[in-house]
Each structure stands twice: as structure tokens, then as C-alpha cells.
TrEMBL record:
<dbReference type="GO" id="GO:0005764">
    <property type="term" value="C:lysosome"/>
</dbReference>
<dbReference type="InterPro" id="IPR016286">
    <property type="entry name" value="FUC_metazoa-typ"/>
</dbReference>
<feature type="domain" description="Glycoside hydrolase family 29 N-terminal">
    <location>
        <begin position="58"/>
        <end position="377"/>
    </location>
</feature>
<keyword id="KW-0378">Hydrolase</keyword>
<comment type="function">
    <text>Alpha-L-fucosidase is responsible for hydrolyzing the alpha-1,6-linked fucose joined to the reducing-end N-acetylglucosamine of the carbohydrate moieties of glycoproteins.</text>
</comment>
<dbReference type="InterPro" id="IPR000933">
    <property type="entry name" value="Glyco_hydro_29"/>
</dbReference>
<dbReference type="GO" id="GO:0006004">
    <property type="term" value="P:fucose metabolic process"/>
</dbReference>
<protein>
    <recommendedName>
        <fullName>alpha-L-fucosidase</fullName>
        <ecNumber>3.2.1.51</ecNumber>
    </recommendedName>
</protein>
<dbReference type="InterPro" id="IPR057739">
    <property type="entry name" value="Glyco_hydro_29_N"/>
</dbReference>
<dbReference type="Pfam" id="PF01120">
    <property type="entry name" value="Alpha_L_fucos"/>
</dbReference>
<keyword id="KW-0732">Signal</keyword>
<dbReference type="GO" id="GO:0004560">
    <property type="term" value="F:alpha-L-fucosidase activity"/>
</dbReference>
<comment type="similarity">
    <text>Belongs to the glycosyl hydrolase 29 family.</text>
</comment>
<feature type="signal peptide">
    <location>
        <begin position="1"/>
        <end position="19"/>
    </location>
</feature>
<dbReference type="InterPro" id="IPR017853">
    <property type="entry name" value="GH"/>
</dbReference>
<dbReference type="GO" id="GO:0016139">
    <property type="term" value="P:glycoside catabolic process"/>
</dbReference>
<keyword id="KW-0326">Glycosidase</keyword>
Length: 588
């Protein structure tokens, strides 16, 4: 059966949602034609030929679960997101314009950058008190401004009235406090004169990722100056990893995005190998168009997988300080736990005021999370996702002989989970409420009943087991449509060759529904799927193929692709009539 089991926690963030997963050839996730740009596919040979951290190097990262992302720079002058709404000319292959002339962000704002209230030690103390286990510092965003004293550029913080090396002070404070530290470095650079990963004379714009293609008769090539940009980039990366002591993470930011950026644009294989040589044990994300050490969802909680991943999230929808309200602490804690249940981390971003002051409201929210983690972090830090895959209303993590269940909702007054093979429950207790647990078993399932007063954020149950908990079949088997977010079976049909009208078969749904996906079984190599609200106008939904295949049907909402599309009809189209089975899943 061609299938995957992906439990995706759906969020509705304020800004656009991006994600990048690196997958091996044959991974069923890459067959989702609706989200092809999220999955960079590598052949086994390509994967094997690349460079990686060891499992031992990665252990601390998975144990940590929670990192702070510091987005701070010239953008703080106008209390806006970094680079995108600021820089007027987004250099190709990016497109679009920010709101400010070059004279503002290149000349005026740096001349006012004094950071009179910046205190690196205070920032790191807040991070520790807030429960963060590592900090990733933005050292250069797409605007090309260097937050350290580089000798390879003049557009840098030591040429402002502040004069000091911001990065040196922060890294030193991290080392002094025993805090792991990473560096965010964007390969994009809309300031640097030599930056030209694509020659614009060879390309034309298109609407979908990668947002460009070669002009007829042309091949997309780099601009003539880009080789000098690559030389500069090797120099500054070498400088960052030589002059600032131990660095634990290197965080790039030019995601593959359907081929928008490619590894050759950065000489990425040689660049990342140099990084590992300079900083043995360092871990590197997957945004150089190489597999990297971990995947990087953004503004969404990632899917369950054994390969490490980290969701970069924001406190209030902005990368960098904005006066928008901070998301409720309850929601922030829930997203952290849901990430852990999917075997991933959360990298939570905030930004300081232009004078370097930590915003009091943001600090208050972070410290509330820290107090919660101080009390209940035993059920979070050092865990691994499983042994059951997460669903919308619950998740699970484990370590040693203990399992922690995260119960966010009790839609039926209880939660039933498959009993583990060769492992039994010795004791069960609530971690964060003062009641006695109620549970029973029917031999095949363990059934946990809703307490009288469940916690408003999450009810946590600790299960002590007879044996050490391992990754097991319960975690990875099943259908994507087992996840309640996909609703229920609305239509199930066994279609024979005589039921088709030409090469088309129309399915009338029982009313106007939110169609979330199809499961098909056939011997056809290609069946196109369409949806319609009126039976006249049809929208492509994807392609299914030979064997048993599952197709999620998504819709773009607030920048994120989420399951579901309004429809009254589904249309199948193939080269010739055939026998097949189709099941349509909908939410009422």
C-alpha cells in the first residue's frame, strides 16, 4: 500500500507559513502534488554523498526541545518584521518590494542604532528563566546587515553609534550561562552588490514555486558577479565559526522551495563541510538545499517523523518586534507539547525594541512559560515522540520506562489508545492536576477517562511501564485519514469499467461538504482528481496512481495549507475506464 502516516498539528498563524522537509526518494510525502515545493527529494546516492552530524551530536538537540530565536536588527526602528516589509528591492529569485527607500535602512537607521538598553547577560538570563535550552541569534538577515564586527563588509553594527560587537557579547553571555548557542545566517543578501544567484536576463516569472523558469531557448545561470559573493560568503562564515568560540547550530535560510534556491548557488556541500571542520559536532539545518541534520517547518507544527525537526514560531506573528498582542501562553505551551509529541522542537522567536530593551509584555509571557516548565518540564524535556502518533486532541512522549500523555480535549469523555505489545502499565498518575486517574483496558486498548476538572491547557498523565518504551508499530502504521482532522468517510464506491462516462467518473457528495481527501485502489498509473461546488467549474485537486494511494486535498488559509476544500462533487479522470475503489473523506 502506498501510504504515509503523518500527524500534522494544524495551526492558523497570522503570517505566511513555510516549511522545508528533506526526504529520500520514494518517500510518499513527496507524492503530494499540492505541496511539492515543501519536500526536497534526494536520491539514495545524493543523501549518502552529503554530510551529516552524528546521532550523538544530535542527542542534545532532541533532548532540549525548546529554543529561543532572536530576531533583532535595523527593522526594529519601525517595529516591523525583518527585511521583507523593509527592503524596497527584493533581489531575484525573490520578488516584490518593501516600503522603505534605500536611504532609510542603509544610511539613516544605522546612524541611529545605539542600543542604549541592550544587556546581553539580561537577555540570556531571561532565556534561562523562560525554560529555553538553546538560543539562535540572527547575525545577518536578507537586508545584509552584519550584527558582528566582520572585516569583510562595512554595513555592520560596529560602524553604528553602538560601536560594540553585539554578537560577541551575546555569545559570551551564553557560554558563561552554559546555554547552547546557534547562529542564523541568511544566504540571501539584498544589499551586497555581488549577490546574483540567478541572472535575471535568463528567466521569466511564473505564479507558483519556484516562481521562475528559463526563457525559451535559455538556461538559468548565476549572474557574473555571484562567484565573488560565494567567496565573500565563505569568508564571513569562516569568520563566524573561528572568532566566537563554541557554536552549536548553524541555521541557514534559503529554502529549496520547489527549486527556487539550489545547493550550487552557495557551493553548499563544500560550505557545510568547512563548517563541520571548523566546529566539530555542530548541527546544520536543511536550508542550503542539502539534506542537513534537521527539517524546518515554519509558523506551523511539523508532522511526526523520526528524523529531527524544529518548528520556527513567533510570539505574535512577526519575526522581530511588533506591538501586536502576544499569543496566549496556553496556546504557546500547547504548540510546544504538540511539537514534542511529533518528535520535534520549537524555536520561538521574539525581537527587542530599537534601543535593545526586552519588551515587558513579551518577557512576561516567556517567563510564565518558564514557570510552567519548571513545574512540569519532566514531561517535556529529554523525551521522544510516541509511542502513539499524535492526533488533534492528544499526543504522547516517552523516555525510559515512562510515557507522558498530553490530553488537550476529551471529545467523547475518554481517549482510547492501542495497548502496547510486551509492555504493561504499572501505575498511572496525573502530573498537573490533583485527582486519581481513571482508566481501564479491554485487552486491546487502554481507555483513559476524563477527570472531573481537566486542566485548561493540557492534562498530563504519566504512565509507568514494566519495560523500556521503544519506537513501535503503533507509532507509524495506519492511514493519514485516521487523524480526526480529516473527518469521516462520506462516500465509498466500487467502480467498474461500465460506470464511466468516457474517461470521467463523477461522484455526487451527500450535500455541500469540506472534502479533505481520497483513498483509491486501482491499477492505473495516473488518475486526475478534481472538485467542484456546482458540477460545472472544476478545480484540480491532485493525482493518484497505481495501487492504494492516499491524497490529501488542501486549501490555502492565512498562508498555510490546511486539509479541506468546499465541494459538492468530485471528478475522476483517467485515460480509459477501469475498475477501482474510491473513498472520499469529508468534514461536515
Amino acid at each position: 500500500m502506498k501510504k504515509y502516516f503523518i500527524a500534522l498539528w494544524i495551526l492558523f498563524p497570522a503570517g505566511p507559513s513555510i516549511a522545508q522537509w528533506s526526504v529520500k526518494e520514494g518517500d510518499p510525502r513527496a507524492q503530494d502534488s499540492n505541496q511539492y515545493y515543501l519536500y526536497q527529494v534526494f536520491s539514495k546516492a545524493q543523501w549518502s554523498a552529503s554530510n551529516f552530524a552524528t546521532p550523538g551530536d544530535m542527542k542534545w538537540f532532541s533532548d532540549a526541545r525548546y529554543g529561543m530565536f532572536i530576531h533583532f536588527g535595523l527593522n526594529a526602528f519601525v517595529n516591523k518584521d525583518m527585511s521583507w516589509p523593509i527592503v524596497y528591492d527584493h533581489k531575484a529569485p525573490d520578488s516584490g518590494h518593501g516600503s522603505y527607500p534605500d536611504s532609510a535602512w542603509k544610511k539613516i537607521w544605522p546612524g541611529l542604532f545605539r542600543l542604549a538598553k541592550f544587556n546581553a547577560g539580561e537577555w540570556v538570563k531571561i532565556a534561562k528563566d523562560a525554560g529555553f535550552k538553546y538560543i539562535v541569534i540572527v547575525v545577518k538577515h536578507h537586508d545584509g546587515f552584519h550584527m558582528w564586527d566582520t572585516k569583510y563588509a562595512d554595513f555592520k553594527i560596529t560602524n553604528t553609534p553602538f560601536k560594540r560587537d553585539y554578537l560577541k557579547e551575546l555569545v559570551t553571555a551564553c557560554h558563561k550561562a552554559g546555554m547552547r548557542v546557534g547562529l542564523y545566517y541568511s544566504q540571501r543578501d539584498w544589499y551586497h552588490r555581488d549577490y546574483a544567484p540567478v541572472d535575471t536576463s535568463t528567466l521569466q516569472r511564473i505564479a507558483a514555486p519556484p516562481y521562475y523558469k528559463a526563457k525559451p531557448g535559455k538556461t538559468v545561470v548565476p549572474g557574473s558577479s555571484h562567484k565573488d559573493y560565494i567567496a565573500y560568503q565563505f569568508n564571513v562564515v569562516r569568520e563566524l565559526l573561528t572568532n566566537y568560540g563554541k557554536i552549536d547550530i548553524f541555521w541557514f535560510d534559503a529554502a529549496w522551495w520547489g527549486g527556487m534556491f539550489t545547493a550550487d548557488m552557495w557551493d553548499a556541500e563544500n560550505l557545510t563541510r568547512m563548517i563541520r571542520k571548523l566546529q566539530p559536532g555542530i548541527i546544520i539545518n536543511n536550508r542550503t538545499s542539502l539534506p542537513g541534520d534537521f527539517d524546518t517547518p515554519e509558523q506551523r507544527i511539523g508532522m511526526f517523523q523520526l528524523r529531527p525537526w524544529e518548528s520556527a514560531m513567533t510570539l505574535n506573528g512577526s519575526w522581530g518586534y511588533e506591538p501586536s498582542p502576544v499569543r496566549p501562553v496556553k496556546d504557546l505551551i500547547a504548540q510546544m507539547l504538540k511539537a514534542a509529541a511529533g518528535n520535534g522542537n520549537v524555536l520561538l522567536s521574539w525581537g527587542a525594541h530599537f534601543d535593545g530593551a526586552f519588551d515587558e509584555k513579551q518577557k512576561d509571557s516567556l517567563l510564565k512559560i518558564g514557570r510552567w516548565l519548571k513545574q512540569f518540564g519532566v514531561a517535556y524535556y529529554g523525551t521522544r515522540g510516541g509511542p502513539w502518533a499524535p492526533f488533534r486532541n492528544y499526543g504522547a512522549v516517552y523516555k525510559g520506562k515512562r510515557i507522558f500523555l498530553y490530553l488537550f480535549d476529551w471529545p467523547n469523555g475518554s481517549v482510547s489508545l492501542p495497548a502496547l505489545h510486551n509492555n504493561r502499565i504499572v501505575a498511572a498518575r496525573y502530573v498537573n492536576i490533583d485527582e486519581k486517574t481513571k482508566w481501564n483496558t479491554n485487552g486491546r486498548h487502554w481507555i483513559f477517562h476524563k477527570p472531573a476538572r481537566p486542566d485548561a491547557t493540557v492534562t498530563i498523565i504519566e504512565l509507568k511501564m514494566t519495560g523500556t518504551v521503544q519506537e513501535n508499530a503503533e507509532m507509524i502504521k495506519g492511514s493519514m485519514f485516521d487523524d480526526p482532522v480529516y473527518g469521516k468517510k462520506a462516500v465509498e464506491k466500487h467502480i467498474d469499467e461500465n460506470s464511466w462516462k468516457g474517461n470521467r467518473y463523477r461522484i455526487d457528495l451527500p450535500g455541500h461538504r469540506m472534502v479533505t481527501g481520497l483513498q483509491t485502489s486501482s491499477l492505473s498509473e495516473k488518475i486526475e482528481v478534481f472538485t467542484s461546488q456546482d458540477g460545472i467549474h472544476w478545480d484540480p485537486a491532485g493525482v493518484v496512481g497505481n495501487g492504494t494511494t492516499e491524497l490529501s486535498i488542501n486549501e490555502l488559509k492565512t498562508g498555510a495549507l490546511v486539509p479541506g476544500r468546499r465541494a459538492s462533487f468530485v471528478l475522476l479522470q483517467t485515460k480509459r475506464p477501469l475498475r477501482m475503489k474510491v473513498t472520499v473523506y469529508t468534514v461536515q
